[in-house]
Design goal:
Elements (H helix, E strand, L loop, with lengths): L11 E2 L10 H10 L4 H12 L6 E7 L5 E7 L9 E4 L13 H4 L5 E4 L16 H19 L4 E6 L1 H12 L4 E7 L19 H10 L6 H5 L4 H8 L1 H6 L8 H10 L5 H8 E3 L2 E2 L16 E6 L8 H8 L5 E6 L6 H4 L1 H15 L1
Parallel strand pairs: 4-5, 4-6, 6-7, 7-10, 10-11
Antiparallel strand pairs: 1-2, 2-3, 3-5, 8-9
Length: 355
């Protein structure tokens, strides 16, 4: 357990904090009001990563445009098999994969990173149009891959990460050996009949009732010193999901510090969404553009608020391609944390089918 140093000069920047620069009088006042900083996020994440049993390397990967992507690589010595790359969902970060990282890196290298604009990665200003924001995410993933020197990968994305992994696979299919979509956000078209719309999570309805059309997680920043308590109040389920590792509020603190920083990826997500459950550019309209020889597996929680019929619709749109859809009982949207043992077993089986 611990950190490894890269021997490749110039590729990795070790973990210095990326403190955000205030912009405007309100932003300069808010940091004093809200009890968060990149240093605090670094510290709580370190407590999470201490749980890893396998060797791991945690560092910033510097992109040519000066942005930095916070990256955790587990089992870097296992170079003979195709690596697994995991992309987190909205408001998440590398720490939320802690229930999965050791198991999924037992026989191959695993890479996970904070998406541009989230977690400890750089928080640039994104384009305000949905296509531009999506392209910025996808370009950052490809530039990260190039910088890392990964020829091809098994690409797994959860929620927003699933949407972006799909968009990436459309543009760079030669880099994807298998696409694994876990409760992916943004696939179906929004129904015209309100009765066909699944209710969003209770916590999101509560936030919307307070902040209306503001950034989705602005309430955490506006709440100031009460922000950490709001995470615990609205998402007590996260403490239960990770109870085997943490008896305290480590995970709630991590989620708070990931999302109480200046919004960047969150603003991009707002540009991409029509409302929380729907994308302005639905992926079902584009899934056929992925090259036919790219296999796709879609994993849903049986109790998710995401429309699980999407998997069958993807099968219909790709009749000459491998598409498998499945549901995991006892799991909701965060399948990987609700049923980690089953999830890990399923993903390991998929990975072993690649090599």
């Amino acid at each position: 357990m611990g950190r490894l140093r890269s021997t490749r000069q110039g590729l990795f920047t070790m973990a210095d904090d990326l403190e955000q620069q205030p912009q405007g009088w309100l932003s300069s006042w808010l940091p004093a009001w809200r009890p968060t900083s990149m240093s605090q996020l670094k510290n709580v994440e370190a407590r999470i990563l201490q749980c890893l049993q396998n060797k791991f390397l945690a560092r910033y990967v510097s992109l040519p445009n000066q942005n930095k992507i916070w990256t955790v690589t587990v089992s870097p010595e296992l170079r003979d098999r195709t690596p697994l790359v995991m992309v987190h969902g909205f408001g998440g970060g590398v720490g939320l994969w802690i229930l999965n990282m050791d198991s999924l890196s037992a026989r191959r290298t695993l890479h996970t990173f904070d998406l541009l604009g989230f977690g400890r990665s750089s928080r640039p200003t994104f384009p305000r149009d949905p296509e531009g924001a999506e392209d910025e995410f996808v370009t950052s993933i490809e530039t990260w891959r190039e910088t890392m020197g990964i020829p091809s990968m098994i690409l797994l994305g959860h929620s927003l990460g699933g949407f972006l992994a799909t968009s990436y696979s459309i543009k760079y299919p030669e880099r994807v050996k298998h696409l694994i979509l876990v409760d992916p956000w943004g696939f179906p078209l929004r129904p015209t009949d309100p009765s066909e719309i699944r209710a969003p999570p209770t916590w999101f309805k509560a936030v919307v009732s307070v902040l209306g059309r503001s950034n989705p997680l602005a309430v955490l920043r506006v709440a100031g010193p009460w922000g950490p308590g709001l995470v615990q109040r609205f998402r007590p389920d996260f403490k239960r999901k990770f109870a085997d590792f943490f008896e305290d509020d480590t995970i709630s603190e991590y989620i708070y510090h990931c999302n109480a920083q200046n919004p960047s990826g969150e603003t991009a997500f707002k540009a991409m969404m029509e409302s929380f459950g729907w994308a302005r550019r639905p992926m079902l309209e584009r899934i056929h553009l992925i090259r036919k020889d790219v296999p796709i597996t879609m994993i849903y929680g049986a109790n998710t608020w995401i429309d699980t019929s999407t998997g069958k619709k993807v099968k219909m749109q790709r009749p000459d391609s491998y598409v498998r859809d499945m549901e995991i009982e006892g799991a909701s949207h965060h399948v990987y944390a609700d049923q980690p043992h089953i999830f890990n077993s399923v993903v390991e089986e998929i990975c072993d089918s690649v090599d």
